[in-house]
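From the pipeline queue, job 12 of 40. The input is one protein chain; the requested action is below.

Action: predict structure.
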Amino acid sequence: MEKSLFRYIWTHSKRDQMIVCAVVLASQPFYFLSLDLPRQIVNQAIQGEAFKDGNATAPFLKLTWHWPDWLGGGSTPLFEGFQLSRVGLLLGLSCLFLLFVIINGAFKYWINVAKGVLGERMLRRLRFDLFTMVLRFTPDALRTVKSSETATIIKDEVEPIGGFIGDAFITPVFLSMQALTALFFIMVQNVWLGLMALAVVAIQLIIIPRLRRELLVLGKERQLASRELAGRVGEVLDGIEVVHVHNAYDWERAEIGNRLFTLYDLRVRIYNRKFVVKFLNNFLSQLTPFFFYAVGGYFALRGTLDIGQLVAVISAYRELPPPLKELIDWDQQRLDVQVKYDQVTQHFADERLAPLIEARLAEVQDEPLTGLLVAEGLRVTDPHGGMVLDGASFRLELPVHVAMIANGGAAASVMARIIARRMPGFGGQIRIGNRDLMQLPTSIAGRRIAYAGLDPILFPGSIRENLIYGLRARPVQNAEDARRKADRRIAEAIRTGNPLDDIADQWIDYDQIGVRDEDHLDHVLVELLNRIGMGNEIYLFGLAGWIDPERYPHVAERIVEARRRLRETFQASGMADLVVPFDPDRYNDQATIAENLLFGVPVADEFMGRSLASNSDFSGAIDRAGLTDDLVSMGLQIAETMTEIFEGLPPGHSLFEQFSFIGADELPDFEAILRRRRRTEALGREDRTKLLSLPLDYIEARHRLGLLDDELKLRLVRARALVRETLENAEVRGVEFYDQERVCAAAPVRDNLLFGRVSYRVANARQRVAEAISTVVRELGLREDIERIGLDHQVGTAGRLLTSQERASINLARCLVKKPDILVIDGALAPFDETRSQQMIDLLIDLFEQQSLFMVLPNDRQADNFDILMRFRDGQITTEERGGPAPGVRNTKPEAAPRIAGEVA
């Protein structure tokens, strides 16, 4: 990274900087004329110097070119101007002054906008450059660099640098030109007044920056303290489970409180120093007007300075302090930003970055990683200085299956990381054929080598997005690229050094992985997950997921068909009582009152949970249906019953789960409502809304409080049409209504298949219903479609919404789907039991008939099917051939290689 901030700015923005500076220079004549106009207004129009010869009119806008003496002198009239009276001249000069004010304002507007745009472009470039360097962090650097601190640097700490970039060259030029123009104008009017102004300006420019030096030191300390605070908060979040387990709340609060005090103390010291400097600066700024009024007034009294000149000087000086103050602020900002930039460059130091290896002659280098694998003189030390590998060497003919026997040591994992290029800092050399493994371009190694370690890393998003992550190497070029070059985004990307690629492009080369299109790829992913034993989980994710009828129209139609088939199955097998179907003309005893009234699924927050009772459209509809008083009365009964049942129970009692429509934290509110109800018959609007929310979550079959009779159920069913009409006419689309002939996109697939609610009255109803659903899904061939919906399941931050086995399975499938030449497994099967691990090992050996497989195993008990056993002792490596073909003699006929896509087609 460029060490000098100004060199970095100039290298990437000199063209724009020069254009804006040229505009700054072009604006100065207009600025000078605007300073001179007050003198002309006072002297020529107000005091009448233009009419001193008794003329009734005077020329306005008269333009004359005066020739220099060395060209003969004289003058040439260019424009005779307009003859105006005294009042006309006053108004003309005043309007001309206003015109110059507008012109100068327009210049300032354009310059400020240009600076802002330039700063944002450079900030975008800087952030992208830093992120690019993050991708180049070595594994060793990643173990010492805190991710939260790095993210804070890219997001927050470079923000002031970006704000300064637009000002780096333009602001000092602009402000200096304004200040020099004002000083020059004052000098023209009176030399002594100009010298006094110059003396005060010199004092300001020398003393104030020196006094601000301490602010830089304090600012650097504050920035480091802020970064450490962000890093510590990130550490606590990453280890929050340990905090909970060991009850370290008070310690962590005290630790963060101490850091916050340090920040507070630094801030206070910065404020004290800052405002002392500001006071002195303001005093010096007001000292010059004192001299102007005293000395300039004296000159005016003596007649050596006319009133118009004095007014013009004072007016010109009024324009002088702002640019001087901003110049001093700019110098302070420059020093502060330089400190920040130095800290950024230290964080992204060269020693933390892996060498940038470009894929030159990629068509030559991008060849299969097969042939003789030679390792010579490998040396690796552990943190204590011991030798993990000490001059170790071996030779293998690829493709080969190698079991790396750990036997409790670290050498096997170290060797696995070397082969996977995850440990660049080792001695010796490892090459395949005549190619150094560590010198392969990242683009080639990333496609032809896969590594599955102990801690699988998943990104927030869907399972599908994580599975195909390794396939998004580069976008597939298309015919529209030339047209898109003119796109504004492309133009800005070129100017800021950002990639021209768009994430909306097609990033997966289907031909390369042997599939036809996106649907075929999903088919491959689903089959692969089934083969590694995650099929049932994906199926359950699909049942709990949501279907997009526009994306899967044929699946939506088949789900409606499966719904009918499931209903017929229930009827034919005497299981009709398991599920109470949704019927527009009947009340569903297994659903809440809210669901019966809406007869659909809420899709907006204002229609969900407690918010539904306070929604004006919904409450207005049930009020017109005459149900409000009945439901509020039911809410009173529920509140009374709940307060009696829950009295004295701890918050975590199982009864709170059974009566889930009221929580332990809400009990005091409802107790207060009941006390107010006893004191007076009337209830306030807020109390009625809270009481109304209780029965909306009531299910008679589950809660069994006997609050619903047949008459009220009938009235609730009759109110459906009114509620639906009201909500359909509302501004917000808040509910997806049920329709027996189509899929409800807001409801999970399981609910769409049932189109009803499982009965609470039948024992083992849910298990029997699940079995019936599986049978119908299998008969209609819907399982794979549902599993494809399961691919949309979100994994959460770092995959925390999944179990450890699910994370490991997805990580392994991600490696397999790109069909690498070399797959390295180092602890990826640890979450599985021995039986499951052996099954997956057999599968991997079967899939990698023509590719190389290196697997770290704790012992040789699971190594029967491997070609080579690699053992580690005293820093040396020995290889042992097992039964089967010797290394390099394996069947490598093209037709013998199983293709993942072909197997599952």
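Job complete. Confidence is low (pLDDT under 50) at residues 359-364, 884-905.
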